[in-house]
Amino acid sequence: MTSALETQALGKRYGRHWALSGCTLDIPAGRVAGLVGPNGAGKSTLLNLAAGQLSPTEGSLQVLGERPAPGSAKIGFVAQDTPTYGGLTVGEHLRLGARLNPRWDAAAARARIERLGLDPGQRAGRLSGGQRAQLALTLGIGKRPELLLLDEPVAAVDPLARREFLQGLMEAAAEYELSVVLSSHLVTDLERICDYLVVLVDSRVRIAGDVDDLLATHRLLTGPRRDPDALPAGQQVVSASHTDRQSTLLVRTGEPILDPQWTVEPVGLEDLVLAYMSAPPARPALEVLK
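That's the ABC transporter ATP-binding protein sequence above. Prediction below.
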């Protein structure tokens, strides 16, 4: 199967500063992938490279089996702050989309605007943050891409508008069979719509895989204090904390936890993400689940 986004040792440098370096990643096509990581991890740079807005300094990058090019009809991109033109009306945005995109779906774009209750004569500069986000998403969907890239599209909008945006994204992904890569700091958003997860820290992929598989292979262990290095070889310690008498470990394993001294609990997505974001940089590269 063709990958939606595949990179090998990808890097982007501005002068002496590397915004992204040594990034190796493979996101399968047909997935709604959440991209999460701390500020400065390289998420926006990666998405701009994938959209063809930037050229890599080193490494290789393929999107849907091809090198990305600016304005590619196969790629839709909603950048940070859901950019729209404040002086243009909603209707003028749709007409601009039709002029710029050879695969533009005018009927779907108009239907979506009507369903959202947006006035085609309203200038974008007078829309709420949530409405601008929905307009930007409509432009991305109306292009009829095969891959939709979204970089923190709803970080600045209220919870209700964010929920409505994500619902619209889910519906579009299902209806048009889109591959989606969504960057967000809000793990609850990713948990709501994503079936694939990538945690990026310092340009390196700490963990990537099917969300259900990741949750099924991680457990939180609580019990008498012990050295994490003493655990069986099949239990990879992701994070550890200790008191004088107790240890709490988040481990990755595909095997049952048989030690009766451990209290074993499932791991939520937020705890999983935070554990990998805070894992020591020297930790060996982690396996990617296909």
